[in-house]
Amino acid sequence: MGILENTKFILSVCELYYIKGLSQKEISAELNISRAQISRIITMAKEQDMVSIHLNYPNSEENLYENAIKGEYGINQVYVYDLGDAEDDKNSNRILAEKSSDLFSILIKDGEKVGVMSGRTVSCLANAIPTSKNRRLQFIPLCGGQESAGSDWFANTIAQRFAQKTNGKYYVFNAPQYLMNVETKSMLLNEPNIKEVVELGRHCDSTLIGIGSVDYGSTGSRAGNLKKEDLDALQKMGAKANICSSYVDENGKMLDTPFSSRILGASMSDIRNSKKIGVARGTEKVPAIRAVLKGRLLDVLVTSLDTAKKIIGKE
User: Fold this and answer.
1) Residue 132 has pLDDT above 60, yes or no
2) Is 195 in a helix, a strand, or coil?
3) Are residues 35 and 155 in the same domain?
4) Residue 206, helix vs strand vs coil
5) 116 three-state secondary structure
6) Whether residue 195 is found in the same domain as residue 240
7) For position 139, which CATH number holds?
8) Which of the four, 73, 95, 165, 185, has the lowest number of CB atoms within 10 Å?
9) pLDDT tens digits, one per residue of 256-272
10) Same domain, 20 and 103
11) Secondary structure of 268-302 as H, E, C letters
């Protein structure tokens, strides 16, 4: 009988590996068999249900909805956080950012160029991440922003705060995001400083983006960039979400809107080769988040438990 047919031997190897915590190299030396054989034994034991692995999640409901969203929308990484009674609190974005801040060092690798969009939740994340040094990160704003109320959640300000927290470098997108006409956009894109930032934005390794709803309480509206008639027109065209400088319908399809030609900032097409990390929560955001997920526009979603339940349609 060979070792791959000896149940007792297979289970003894698994006990050394899973229970006693020995490495495959250590098991190989102790049992005097090759590491390749050890690897085959461990794999076969799992395939034949000799080994059952159970993970003790601190919050099983978070894990349940993470897997539900992955299964329904085909996204590989979803992180759901239970905000408890704070879900409806005015500080809920800040609390979500604080709970998820440890993901930053996992998702963003040293030496990366990181694109950042405007948004209140992304702004909170910039405040929440721990201070670090020598990560050689560069932060590139993916859109401009005029100085006005709410400028603390404009991309330029967020890029600066991320850089300060990580001892990194940041750039400034020195222009408004929404322009009056196409001619102004063409002129600004020829400015050397703006041209440099736009080009850097197209070559980001990762991007941190919020998901905007197309309504009167949205970030764009509150910053004074979109007027009521603009929002009415977008809604009439079927726009459900604003992500970067793109508008998408309920199925995540990009819309060619009259605003697209005069928005100065990165579109989803511009950042298609980056790891796209979306951070969003809130009842008002659910249709927008669903649309973005249906369009497979994100690689990573970070959200709250209550929002996750509504995305799946359980509440």
Assistant:
1) yes
2) helix
3) no
4) strand
5) strand
6) yes
7) 3.40.50.1360
8) 185
9) 887 777 788 888 889 99
10) no
11) CCCCCCCEEEEECCCHHHHHHHHHHHHCCCCCEEE
- Averaged pLDDT for residues 32-57: 87
* Strand bridging mode 138-141 / 169-170: parallel
Of 291, 256, 289, 295, nearest in space to 272 by CA: 295
Residues near 124 by beta carbon (within 8 Å), at least 6 away in sequence:
93, 94, 96, 97, 98
- Taking the C-alpha atoms of residue 94 and residue 2, their distance in angstroms, rounded to an integer, is 58
Who's near 172: CB < 8 A, 6+ residues apart? 141, 156, 159, 160, 193, 197
Do residues 32 and 119 both lie within one domain?
no
Q: Which of helix, strand or coil describes residue 246?
A: strand
- DSSP letter for 101, please: T
* 8 and 108 both lie in a single domain: no
32 falls within a domain:
yes
Residue 144 exposure: Cα atoms within 13 Å on the Cβ side: 21
Is residue 196 domain-shared with residue 125, that is, in the same domain? yes
Residue 101 backbone phi and psi in degrees, to 5 = -60, -30
Which residues, listed in sequence order, are joined to residue 79 by a DSSP beta bridge?
302
Pairing of strands 169-170, 206-209: unpaired
Helix (H, G, I), strand (E, B) or coil at 114: strand
Residue 131 confidence (pLDDT)? 92
Q: Which residue has the tokens 């973005």?
A: 292
